[in-house]
Amino acid sequence: MSRDEDVLRRILEAEAARVEVSPDALRSIRARTERRPRWFSLGAVALTAATATAAVVGAFALIPRESAPPDPRTASTPSWSSTFSGTSTANLAIYYVGDDQGRQRLYREFHHLPMRDTSTVTKIGTAVTEMLRPESAHDPQYASAWPTGVRVTDVSISGGTVTVNLSKAPPSTIARQELVWTVAAVVGGDPTVKLLVDGSQYATLRKAPALDTLAALWLINPQHGETVARDVSLHVAGAVFEATAHLKVRQGDVVIDERVLTLSIGAPARGEAKLTLTLAPGEYTLEAYTISAADGSVQHLDDHVVTVR
Amino acid sequence: MALAPRAETWAADEAVTHLFTAHYRPLVRLATLLLHESGAAEEIVQDAYVALHGRWRRLRDADKALAYLRATVVNRSRSALRHRKVVDRHLAMSSPEPDAPSAEAGALALLQHAAVVAALRGLPNRQREALVLRYYLDLSEADIAETMGCSRGAVKSHCSRGMAALRETLERAS
């Protein structure tokens, strides 16, 4: 070994030895890993979502001005709860942050949510409220990057710009992207999102490139925790090398089915694949992943536990 | 590692406890060397353990879990640095040079040590990562490649460029 290497080794060792760790680190980690149980039915989730949405809408004043200029009367009136009937529902795409090969990337879930009406502003307000609701992700491996207690106080649309007023600022770049992608899923395309914090201009946001933002592979359907019929429709999407992904169906440690999927297009574009599997009633883990060309290891794994009835 | 054979039977909570005892401190030290700040380093390492907890069911192997923790710490440190660069640039304009050890605090050796640490800090992220993984953690080229998510060839080139950039400072320190 060269003398330089030796010196560097010694200096790094000495530098590292100065670092001490906090005595209650394990306790902080434990506090964060004690989460809700992994097993629950989709019915229970939908119910919780409905209750929670109903509970927070009191603070949620929406000002619909999609096509008309702002009307001062509507601006000062209706809080969502007074008119909330829960009769309308929509299936909204909500983005969450998950781990993809040690990087924070966005995953998408569809949440069936009740709302006052199905206007675009209401959908945006509902989707962002759901995104901000703690532990709202069906899959416990996904979570919002936003802190708890952030509220949506106003949403409006003017031209191609969506303005969202929140009670707190985003804590990170990935939190900003979570917001933009959730809003963009409602309005479509690549909107400009003007973020206000407590009424003052905070930032103007656009979607960052999908390749740097979205997880490489998504198991879109079925979703985590879902109960499905015996003919299970699977939907996988991602930007993967040579458009090749793998799918494994497990019951405990027993592999029931395993196949190679060819997505419609390879990386850097985002391709997709759909197929139907027939499974006997029971609980299954569905895993979508890729295999590293370098060492054969499993990468970009997205797995969902589902019940076939 | 002595605990490894039973690892597949651990529940996620147990896995976190075992891996915490064995690796938490070295991982915080690794993150501190990459970031030059121990507060953020602990946060990043704790995040990595929380992520590991959610993932344990798929890993069920102490070595794979350690590889995962390491890669997560390196990646998140890199993101944190990217974030901080902007802030640092502002600070650099307003504040004087960071605390170099004073003459009475120590000998020339200390100053030279500080110079090497500063030079390491000035390297491109990838070069610093490769050098720290190799000379602090003593990882093999293959393990460094896995941790950094790049090829072994890239690891070699990051190491040799990093060493070349540090050479002058190192020679003065030796």
Automatic annotation (TrEMBL), chain A:
Domain GerMN: from-to ranges: 124-206
UniProt keyword list: Membrane, Transmembrane, Transmembrane helix
Coiled coil region boundaries: none
Membrane-spanning intervals of the chain: 39-63
One Pfam family recorded for the sequence: Gmad2
Classification via InterPro entries: GerMN (IPR019606), Gmad2_Ig-like_dom (IPR018911)
Tagged with keyword Zinc-finger: no
This protein's record includes keyword 4Fe-4S: no
Name of the protein in its database record: GerMN domain-containing protein
